[in-house]
Amino acid sequence: MTRYRNKYRIESTRLRGWDYRWDGYYFITICTKNRQHFFGEIANGVMVLNETGQVVQKYWYEIPLHFPHVQLDAFVVMPDHIHGIMILQSTFDNRCNNKSTNGDDAEPNFYSRISPKPQSLSTIIRSYKSICTKMIGVPIWQSGFYEHIIRNEPSLQKIRNYIINNPTMWNDDENSVKK
Predict the structure, then answer these.
(1) How many domains does the chain have?
(2) Is residue 34 part of a domain?
């Protein structure tokens, strides 16, 4: 852990040097607060959504309506988390440009470096979590989210299969918190 203003803070899990506005396939996992089973239950290997789970699913599928550069791929709601693949296809691709992301050559200040950039993966997830919380009426999400940049077709297929089959593997998942 590093310190900022004499307080410890958790290091970012994001890939250094990667701009999360860049085109790509991203595997997303968002967990509920304290891994509570807010979204329904698994019955005979099938996820049965409750009303909260239906809200979470509905707003996931609406993401491209608000972020036209996003396409969605495999997705599943589980009792205490969601998994999905998001495809970013934007006109922004600054990989070969050594300038800062604010468009000038000056080193950006601390807050602009840590703030989510418009149209970035973090901004999309923040908006998604926010609308779900607003519509449900109580805080349901843990802070942050997990992401993995999918770099090739075999990895994409493996992750798709994992997402699709996740409900059938629920009872065998060592990370799932059972009631």
Answers:
(1) 1
(2) yes
